[in-house]
Write a structure and sequence with these properties.
The structure is a single chain. The chain has 11 helices and 8 strands. By secondary structure, it is of the alpha+beta class. The chain folds into 3 domains: 6-95, Orthogonal Bundle (Butyryl-Coa Dehydrogenase, subunit A, domain 1), CATH 1.10.540; 129-236, Butyryl-CoA Dehydrogenase, subunit A, domain 2, CATH 2.40.110; 253-390, Butyryl-CoA Dehydrogenase, subunit A, domain 3 (Up-down Bundle). Strand 2 (148-151) and strand 3 form a beta hairpin. Helix 4 (98-109) runs antiparallel to helix 5, helix 4 packs antiparallel against helix 6 and helix 8 runs antiparallel to helix 9. Bound molecules: flavin-adenine dinucleotide. Flavin-adenine dinucleotide (FAD) binds at residues 130-134, 139-140, 164-166, 216, 371, 374-375, 377-378, 380-381, 384, 397, 399.
Length: 400
């Protein structure tokens, strides 16, 4: 990848700005993240935006152009992200796990034929992927997974059950960890298969949550099939491939989402909780905690920016993602807690006219934010990885 000087970056900034002005529909400004997930028909401006960015390859800005990606350098991709944020634009192809997890893992481990087959449809947003890792008896201790794939000559036959499979009910493909050698030690004998979800041997049962939504499924495999070339990486070495995908997943979860709020939290606090004679937030204790939160958020943002700048490869997720995932979780969950506290009684609303849209969003965001310290490997599992793989402390657990 060429090294871009500041002049070239400035030229690229102008190019990105002009392209966004010509292609990002103003009607979608600020609506980022909404209506991205799910299997329903997408029409109008959102469909046009998906098409435009997919054809340009800028939903996967650093992926190689030979697979439809943008071919941008890391610095150019950061400039593009800055310009998109300024324009109120968002990546409309961040549904499912194709861009964040499966695609980067195929780039790392796929054969040329697998790259040619699977990457272009992900780049263009034409397919949705899910990740089949967790099972009823294999979550943190993922290597205990029992779903079997048996070699049937020219194809695999898969039997077993996955759970918490996000978006499985809408997915076209599943990146799945299966046991291919039950006699081997548990971390060995695992393989990674790319499985077509559109077949009679796969059934998805959405899990209804207390809030009514069903973001994930139980997924049942009953004599499901996959061709021999569906194997990603080597046979019985799927644990290595699977861990790599998790690094990519964690790297995608380091951003401490702010719920899309444009008004800073201190301003909201002043509005709800009142100010003193100097115009400062009146509640001194809340003021102190808000400042501490803002410092944490700033430190996290700067550390993330430094980690990204230092990443040598565009695709360079590492174990440091575990540190950043936990830090992002801490910042996001603290912000959600503070927001509800600031709203007071108004922070108890679930629906109805007594509550503003922002209040209801915040309550729902607070509740969903609890999942951040579970998905992608729980906070405790990230701490184990940090202790073992980064700090080099003795291994006292079986998980990696
Ligand atoms: C919103 C959401 C989406 C998800 N999407 C997917 C998906 O798409 N695909 C998929 O395969 N899975 C998915 N998951 C599942 C997720 O990966 C698991 O929930 C997670 O790995 C924890 O496993 P578990 O739920 O079995 O909890 P357990 O493993 O039973 O853990 C229970 C508690 O024990 C702690 N614990 C367990 N082992 C240790 C240890 N060795 N040291 C310290 N503490 C430990 C954990 O931290 C946790 O607090 C999703 C989960 C959520 C919440």
């Amino acid at each position: 990848m060429p090294d871009f000087g500041s002049d070239q970056l400035e030229d690229f900034r102008q190019e990105a700005r002009a392209w966004l002005a010509a292609n990002f529909p103003p009607t979608l400004k600020g609506s980022g993240g909404q209506a991205l997930e799910g299997g329903g028909e997408v029409g109008g401006d959102l469909a046009a935006w998906r098409r435009a960015i997919g054809q340009k390859g800028w939903a996967t800005p650093t992926w190689p152009p030979e697979y439809g990606g943008g071919g941008l350098s890391g610095p150019q991709a950061r400039v593009l992200a800055q310009e998109m944020a300024k324009a109120g634009a968002f990546n409309p192809l961040m549904f499912g796990m194709g861009i964040t997890m499966i695609g980067p893992t195929i780039l790392d481990y796929g054969t040329e034929a697998q790259k040619q087959k699977h990457l272009p449809p992900i780049v263009r947003g034409e397919v949705q992927w899910c990740v089949g890792y967790s099972e009823p008896n294999a979550g943190s201790d993922l290597a205990s997974l029992q779903t079997r794939a048996v070699d049937a000559g020219d194809h695999w036959v898969i039997n077993g059950q996955k759970t918490w499979t996000s978006g499985a009910q809408y997915s076209d493909w599943c990146g799945c960890l299966v046991r291919t050698d039950p006699s081997a030690k548990k971390h060995d004998g695992i393989s990674f298969l790319l499985i077509d979800m559109h077949q009679p041997g796969i059934e998805t049962r959405p899990i209804a949550l207390i809030a009514g939504a069903s973001p994930f499924c139980e997924t049942f495999f009953t004599d499901a099939v996959a061709p021999k070339e569906a194997l990603l990486g080597q046979i019985n070495v799927g644990w290595t491939v699977g861990k790599r995908l998790l690094q990519h997943e964690r790297a995608s979860q380091t951003g401490a989402p702010g719920g899309g709020r444009t008004v800073p939290l201190p301003e909201i606090a002043k509005r709800y909780c009142g100010v003193d004679a100097k115009g400062r937030l009146e509640d001194q204790d809340l003021r102190t905690r808000l400042v501490r939160h803002q410092m944490d958020a700033r430190a996290h943002g700067l550390t993330l920016a430094r980690a990204m700048a230092e990443a040598k490869e565009a695709n360079g997720a590492t174990n440091a993602a575990s540190v950043l995932k936990n830090s992002a979780t801490h910042v996001a969950q603290t912000r959600a807690e503070l927001t509800l506290e600031i709203f007071g009684h108004q922070g108890l609303g679930w629906s109805g006219e007594a509550f503003s849209g922002e209040e209801i969003e915040s309550v729902r965001g607070w509740l969903f934010g609890k999942a951040m310290s579970i998905y992608g490997g729980s906070a405790e599992i990230q701490n184990n990885i940090i202790s073992k793989r980064i700090l080099g402390l003795p291994d006292t657990t079986q998980s990696s």
